[in-house]
Design brief:
The strands form three sheets. Strands 7-8-9-10-12-11 form a six-stranded mixed β-sheet, sandwiched between helices. The chain has a four-stranded mixed β-sheet with strand order 3-6-5-4. Strands 1-2-13 form a three-stranded antiparallel β-sheet, with helices on both faces. The mean pLDDT is 88. It is built from 40 helices and 13 strands. By secondary structure, the protein is of the alpha+beta class. 61% of the residues lie in helices and 7% in strands. α5 packs across α7, α7 crosses α8 and α37 runs antiparallel to α38. The N and C termini lie far apart (79 Å).
């Protein structure tokens, strides 16, 4: 019956009887209807057909039923992502305006996540008088974001055209790489490296798009670089180009991406000022989830290090000019090999059935070689007048011509690079596999003269370092050397696995992962069962694994998801993976209900995005955390499902590292935390093992306290009076930073007389008054601010500090205890660390 209905609906659609086609498919239940429409939209583009959409718009009842679907976001995303023409004759305006009328929240949400308002001008030119205030506020924001972004991007294109019209493209390429080196040398941090990589990705994408299609990179960038070294300066035009891209990228990172993909952000319009903020809780959650990746990588490196130590004699016998370099390479090989094995990716997807190590070994070896070179350069830089002098010293100290000819960028044939570093092919005596096969996952083939979508830049120097320019590859050695390829190689493999050509491998290895997890549950003392999808009649509901201790039960959907890249990917993971998995578990939960105990529903994924948050009553759990805990349970029998749940929900990955850091550096703890750890016996228990924890020392836990500017995303005016207000507010901030508190107070008073409920001005004025020792007034302003945003960590902490200074210690400690409980992973900086206390007190504390 259902097959007949689907066939009839397709026939009606083909005959352009669109309303009848939709009415017919609505005869199915909602779950099957949703699945059918999503499939047809993907394969036959039903909702990318403006005639189909506009025909539906003529019948309110059809639109209403369509919008009631739980998967409506998934269904309409491709529709809004289409590059619709502005012409009324070829776009679905009637359909979209009907959505705006019946569901303003959905309309706005779709424009945000598809970024359609940035790509189609009619959204910002829309006459919105008839629509809700909700749409009107967002409409003001769209206009502002579009205007600002357009100005910034126009400047990028102007500066880029100026550069390539007066310079050879190879010269521009070499100059940009040099400027990246100079910028990094001023601030050699991982955060700066990430920003510079984004700038470089944008530059490469824009450069290739701007060049004529018949352009060839015939000139050697190395010759241009030698000229730059000789002159010891970068062309001012290049500096202007670099700065314009920096400004555009900063706007994308701070305004566009958060607004488009963090749907917890909602703009507000008060007193002609539009603002939108991320909550401090969301900000720290995002930062924490990023650290989870680093901790996971270190966990695998720690295991690899142990294996390396156990097999050191074998490694030591390897004939190598640099045993330390060889040891680092071996640990990297082991770590990434174990990680890929846990993901069941020991064979590289689409890699001619070759083992994955054939792909990652050469690139790790080459990368570590340049890492060693940068280590030498960094030492010379500290003793040099500038970057250029350090470079010359490095060149004089290093006789290897290839190395210095390939610093700070590699420009050579891929064969030349792999001939030096592909040891695995030599070891296996494989001289048949082409080097292009091994380097393909890391190579980006330049498409010159093609348009590109600047909001969806596909080039990523960390994932595909080798830019193919004719017969040569090009890559900056800075980015190349700062990689250990742990996640980049894995992400490459996961993306290849999603290709239809690799369906067989994907399905087989998914079953292997499920079998491994089932076995781990059984070894930990639980009963476990795998489900293969045919056990339930509901096509949209199933689970992969059930685990039980005879009382409580865990229902699991196991998802091998891609790894973090950005906010956008995080949103789509939620939409396409987390939401679907929770729906599948919820739809079959009734089959497992039991009076004996509780049912726990887990979405177990390989990414750390939104780990340990609840999604539609299902807990999102990280796969690697889970298998680590289950392995630890195998040594001590008698654990219950409740024990496992408690361990998982305690966020053991983060809490364990916090404990390791406490043992490594007790002097950085405040007295309260020190006493808590001491009384729990932590120091006594873990101190003998501190050597094993040193690998975690570089993890930035607890997270440093961030000022609100880090998560307050936007504030802009809609008329002249609000423009004056923002200027006054910024002057007040500058006066505060410069220590002119009296002037800052006067300026904030002017702001608050105009807009008395501005959270930022209230909290900033409170801080100024506290610095002036006007504690009663300061506390009053803090309390007004916290009525607006009661959970802002920075303001709560400052309120507690001011209470302390005002002599209200009991209330201050009550607030401190509360925020410490909510943010155990943040350095609250409420109490002085032990290292700042008088020596006699420290001696007394450590002597106990």
């Amino acid at each position: 019956m259902n097959k007949e209905i689907k066939k009839q609906a397709r026939e009606l659609y083909s005959a352009k009887e669109y309303n009848l086609a939709l009415t017919t498919i609505f005869k199915l239940d909602s779950v099957e209807t949703e699945s059918f429409l999503i499939k047809e939209s993907a394969e036959n583009q039903w909702f990318q057909n403006f005639e189909f959409c506009n025909c539906i718009a003529k019948e309110d009842s059809l639109v209403k039923e369509l919008l009631s679907f739980s998967r409506i976001d998934e269904l309409l995303y491709k529709h809004f992502q289409c590059n619709w023409q502005d012409s009324h004759a070829t776009n679905p305006k009637p359909f979209q305006l009907k959505i705006a009328e019946q569901s303003p929240e959905l309309f706005v949400r779709m424009l945000r996540v598809s970024q359609a308002f940035l790509k189609n001008s009619w959204y910002t030119e829309l006459n919105i008088d008839q629509y809700s205030e909700y749409i009107k506020i967002h409409h003001l924001l769209w206009k502002h974001l579009c205007d600002q972004e357009s100005k910034l991007w126009s400047e990028v294109l102007y500066q880029l055209d100026k550069c390539i019209n007066t310079n050879d493209a190879s010269s521009v390429l070499a100059s940009i790489v040099l400027n990246i080196e100079l910028e990094y040398s001023k601030n050699p941090s991982n955060a700066q490296l990430q920003i510079l990589s984004q700038i470089y990705n944008t530059f490469i994408s824009a450069l290739l798009a701007r060049l004529p299609k018949n352009y060839t990179f015939e000139d050697e960038p190395k010759q241009f670089f030698r000229n730059l070294i000789y002159s010891q300066k970068v062309n001012p035009e290049i500096l202007s180009l670099f700065q314009s891209i920096t400004n555009w990228q900063a706007f994308i990172n701070s305004h566009i991406d958060p607004y488009c993909f963090d749907l917890k952000i909602e703009p507000s319009c008060e007193n002609e000022i539009i603002s939108y903020n991320r909550s401090s809780k969301d900000f720290y959650k995002w930062e924490l989830d990023g650290l989870r990746y680093e901790i996971n990588r270190i966990d695998y490196l720690a295991t690899a290090n142990q294996t390396f130590i156990e097999n050191y004699e074998k490694i030591a016998n390897v004939q190598s000019e640099n045993l330390q370099y060889e040891g680092v390479c071996q640990m990297n090989y082991l770590a990434i090999g174990n990680f890929l094995n846990d993901l069941k990716l020991s064979k590289f997807p689409g890699g001619n059935n070759l083992d994955s190590d054939r792909f990652y070994q050469p690139i790790i070896a080459a990368s570590n070689y340049y890492k060693m070179l940068y280590g030498l350069f960094d030492q010379l830089y500290l003793k040099s007048k500038n970057w250029f002098v350090a470079y010359q010293k490095l060149k004089n100290a290093n006789p290897n011509l290839y190395e210095m000819e390939s610093f700070p960028f590699i420009h050579s044939s891929i064969d030349e690079l792999y001939k030096i570093h592909d040891g695995q092919s030599k070891l296996e005596k494989d001289f048949k596999t082409k080097i292009t096969t091994l380097s393909s996952p890391y190579t980006y083939k330049a498409k010159i003269g093609n348009d590109f979508d600047r909001f969806n830049i596909h080039y990523d120097v960390f994932k595909k370092p080798f830019l193919q320019l004719g017969k040569y590859i090009f890559t900056p050695t800075l980015f190349f050397s700062k990689q250990d390829w742990f996640y980049s190689t894995t992400q490459n493999a996961l993306e290849r696995l999603s290709n239809k050509r690799n369906n067989k491998q994907r399905k087989e290895t998914s079953v292997e992962m499920e079998s491994d997890l089932k076995l781990l549950f059984e070894k930990a003392g639980f009963k476990a069962e795998i489900f293969y999808g045919h056990e339930f009649s509901n096509s949209e509901g199933d689970i992969d694994i059930k685990a039980t201790d005879g009382k409580d039960t865990i229902l699991i959907q196991l998802k091998r998801t891609k790894l973090r890249l950005n906010l956008k990917d995080s949103y789509f993971e939620y939409l396409q993976t987390d939401n679907k998995a929770s729906r599948q578990i919820n739809n079959v939960e009734k089959h497992f209900s039991s009076p004996k105990g509780k049912i726990y529903k887990w979405i177990v994924t390989t990414s750390f995005e939104n780990a340990y948050t609840t999604i539609n009553n299902c807990l999102k759990v990280n796969y690697f955390d889970l298998i680590t805990i289950l392995k630890s349970f195998t040594y001590l029998k008698g654990f219950s499902i409740q024990d496992l749940v408690d361990r998982i929900t305690s966020d053991s990955q983060i809490s364990d590292v916090l404990q390791y850091k406490a043992v490594l550096h007790p002097e950085y703890l405040d007295p309260v935390s020190f006493r808590k750890y001491e009384e729990s016996g932590l120091f006594e228990k873990l101190s003998p093992l501190r050597n094993q924890f040193e690998i975690y020392d570089a993890v930035t836990l607890p997270l440093p306290m961030a000022e609100p500017q880090a998560y307050i995303e936007a504030k802009f005016h809609t008329d002249k009076s609000s423009s004056n207000y923002i200027r006054t507010y910024n002057k007040a901030l500058n006066a505060d930073r410069n220590g002119n508190y009296s002037k800052a107070k006067t300026l904030f008073d002017i702001c608050l007389n105009q807009y008395p409920n501005d959270f930022d001005a209230l909290s900033a004025q409170a801080n100024v008054l506290a610095k002036m020792k006007l504690f009663d007034q300061a506390l009053s302003y803090f309390e007004k601010a916290l009525k607006i945003y009661p959970e802002d960590l920075f303001v709560c902490r400052n309120y507690a500090l001011t209470l302390m200074e005002a002599g209200k210690e009991v209330k201050a400690f009550k607030i401190y205890t509360q925020i410490k409980k909510e943010y155990p992973f943040v350095d609250i900086q409420f109490l002085q660390p032990i290292k700042n206390l008088p020596p006699e007190i420290i001696e007394k504390m450590f002597s106990k």
